[in-house]
Amino acid sequence: MLTLYDYLPSQNAWKVRQLLQHLERPYRTEFVSIFEGEGRIEAYRRISPTGTVPAIRRDDGRVLAESNAILTYLADGTNYLPQDAFSRAKVMQWLSFEQERVESQIGALRHWTLTGKLTRRSAEMIEGKHAASLKSLVLLDAEATRSFIAGDGYTIADIAIFAYGSRAEEAGLSLQPYPNVRAWIARVEAQPGFLAEMHPYSIDPHSVKELG
Ligand SMILES: N[C@@H](CCC(=O)N[C@@H](CS)C(=O)NCC(=O)O)C(=O)O
């Protein structure tokens, strides 16, 4: 059975949990306490070179890290990832957008906000993340006039962007100015098998620590 290396408050890991739920694919979980340094131990680095979650292990022992790589692998041959080369590349386009402009901007600001780290960051750093996050939301709002991010169908691009995009308000970024983003969020939430369960950082007393 597939193993998911997980940390419950991780929205990167939520992406994988969400897809596995859509696919109704059974899996077992191994928790990695990232703020206690479990991601840094050598044995885990052999699974995830950057020490991050999520990662997966197949029955044959092969391992894979990076949320969007995992989504791409698991979605292959399903409706969540188109087969034709162009549509597939469109999904990849939005997965790249997600990593550069959603996860590392909105996601990072949300992490700092929810774990009390804003006070340990310079005003310049916070302002940089804030400005980049707003730019991403403006871009998303212009794109979210379609049914789904990569086209007419719901794909792993929606799952990936939803993970942190839908949580922007937890980073202090109001979604009120972005009606198309809000309507897209509602369309994603209406998908059969939507995984509403997300976990706050507050369940982990160690999340106030800096990542090593
Ligand atoms: N680009 C990676 C980012 C993964 C990531 O940063 N995961 C966080 C949890 S949301 C983590 O494990 N952080 C631990 C660390 O950076 O050491 C992905 O999409 O999987």
- Please summarize the sheet with the most strands: 4 strands, mixed
CATH topology of the largest domain: Glutathione S-transferase Yfyf (Class Pi), Chain A, domain 2
- Helix proportion: 40-55%
Order of H and E elements: EHEHEEHHHHH
**Unreliable sequence segments:** none
Task: Count structural domains.
Answer: 2
Cα distance spanning the termini: 31 Å
User: Which value, in Å, is the CA radius of gyration?
Assistant: 17 Å
Broad shape: globular
CATH architecture of the largest domain: Up-down Bundle
The count of helical stretches stands at 7
CATH class (first level) name of the largest domain: Mainly Alpha
Give the tally of β-strands: 4
The small-molecule ligands in this entry are: glutathione
- Beta-strand percentage? 5-15%
Strand order of the largest sheet: 2-1-3-4
Structural class: alpha+beta
Task: Characterise this structure.
The chain is α+β, with helices and mostly antiparallel strands and 212 residues long. The protein folds into two domains: 2-79 and 197-208, Glutaredoxin (3-Layer(aba) Sandwich), CATH 3.40.30; 85-189, Glutathione S-transferase Yfyf (Class Pi), Chain A, domain 2, CATH 1.20.1050.10. It has helices at 11-23, 42-45, 67-75, 85-114, 123-143, 156-165, 179-189; strands at residues 2-6, 27-31, 55-57, 63-65. Strands 2-1-3-4 form a four-stranded mixed beta sheet, with helices on one face. The chain is globular, with a radius of gyration of 17 Å. The mean pLDDT is 97. Bound molecules: glutathione (GSH). Residues 7, 10, 12, 34, 39, 51-54, 66-68, 99, 103, 211 line the site of glutathione.
